[in-house]
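From the shared-data thread, chain only:
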Amino acid sequence: MKKLLKFILLFFVFYGSAQNDGWHITATENSDYTGISIANGRIGLLSSPKPFEIKHIVLNNVYDIDPKHKVSQILHGMNFGNLEMYIDDEKVSEKNITNWSQTLDMKNAALTTSFEYNNKAKISYTMYALRNLQYSAYIDFNVQAKSNINIKVTGKILTPNTFKTPENTFEIIKDNDITMPVLQNKAMSPHNKHYVSTSGTFIWHHINSTNENLRPKLTHNVVSDYENTLSFNTTISKNESLNFSWTGAECTSKNFSDPKSESERMVIYNLLTPKDVLLDQHKSLWHELWQGDIIIEGDLQSQLDARLALYHLYAFSRGDSDLSIAPMGLSLQVPYNGHIFWDTELWMFPPLLMLNQDIARSLVNYRFDRLQAAKERAINYGYKGAMFPWESDDTGEEATPPFALTGPFEHHITADIGIAFWNYYRVTKDKKWLTDKGFPVLKEIADFWISRVKANNDGSYSINNVVGANEYAPNVNDNAFTNGAAITALEYATKAALEIGITPNPKWKLVSEHIKILKLTDGTTKEHEKYKGEIIKQADANLLSYPLNIVRDKENVLKDLIYYEPKLSKNGPAMGKSIFSIIYARLGDVDNAYRLFKDSYIPNMRPPFGALSETTTSNRSYFATGAGGLLQSIIFGFGGLEFTDQGIIQKNPILPKHWKSLTIKGVGLERKTFKIEK
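Structure, as tokens:
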């Protein structure tokens, strides 16, 4: 514990700082930099330490082809977030600035960068992925002159050089006396799957931006087929300020029949809408999201860690989209191509279901919309019902690279989806949704499992030749979590049928009551038929205690904890130990619960903001699955909240010793507040 606390202190001191309001994280050192995502559920912009740059833009649910493995891959789109600034003919760069800092404002989903340039100017700019305009972003600049300066600013749209047939344009669109300058790039995605169009423009706040005679003169320059730029020059007197914005919008043929015109319209909308109105709408939507929140008194670092995790789940999703969340959210293509895994249903979905049912509905509806593809996949593999893919994309077909055994064999995903569906109904009690969408999915999942099991001579059932949650053990029989998840999904299908007045298939109950759960000689849950104590990638057998609630007896729960914790890989994903934390909290052991809570993510945090990487040895931002595990430790462990058929209840909450209180607010449809105090 002392070593862990020392690590936390060093991280806090050397890599970042925080205001004491629990909402802001400020970085002042960028020599070791892992970016943070500014996102709105449709587009994600990954930050960079370099002035006026972002690393890339990720487009949700827009897939092209992974050039290496030839499977689908989420698209990194045209980058409209990079600008250049020259002051007195010298380019502003990381080499000639001082007092650099970046502050992430989680409450308003804004990233502010500030620095000083050669004692001539103080510069700051704030980046927003607009929640109210889901295909656009807005960067607001302020330049304070310390002496008389000449300034040149260039806005760019950079098309990745893998895109095909790029076309660059600039047009001053006119309607009566209103003039609207629009820079635009158009191209086909690398493998010609989507037509992509991106528009951008400057906005001046100190003048009438639409009056061509008052604003600075614009210069258009096509640098190359892949770089289209728009510049202006102006002067700023000593002690005066220049405030302007750059806005961009990116649309594709995935979502629009005419992405060119739509991206232009969005930019024009941003141009002609007052800044305060536009940003207030964005902030208002984020304030609505934060009605579902976690408040920790007495531990500022844990407060920031929890908020950063919840911020990312909110930033990577939308309640109006019927889309899901990839493990890396809207931060990166790699390593999982933007595909949807069990990470959503088992790790991210539970905290979102607790705190925001609109987003939770999008996540389950994503699966319903792909039910037909799952039914066809079951037929293709000789089964009945619906067999959901391990990696899913916009088509709902299997998107796992062929070399990975998880694609053909990690079947627990189908049960995980059924569990999420019933939990959504447990919380919302939306019987129409259950009738129209929930039960049709649960029925097909149940039918899959009764066709997937193998009957044994003793009347039991086995599930053979699977990859379980512990992917270090491929092609095993009677994996603990796979069997437990199948039992639970079958039970939930029976309950769902009865809830809407349908007679359930009696075989669902019969099979669920006789699927094997293997044991070692001392009664410890055995991970699979041939398990002999090997190192495991992540929690597997322990998932039968939480969230499945199959192993309930305290003695057996503890036996499983003690046996499997030492076997967890030290470099495993940033959510494995969160399961152990939750179970210890539910047993009333706060010391072990807190130890494992911190150990589940602290080693995976990366400077300067504390972004989570999947493993202790990688530095990719941002592992949303780990955020889900962290939040579940707080909500379902320390907070003691549970999903039940009667709704959300609280059992035996417990506080770490140095926490003064824990408040979980905005819970369920009634937006309840649960507060635990010493």
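Residues 1-15 have pLDDT under 50 and may be disordered.
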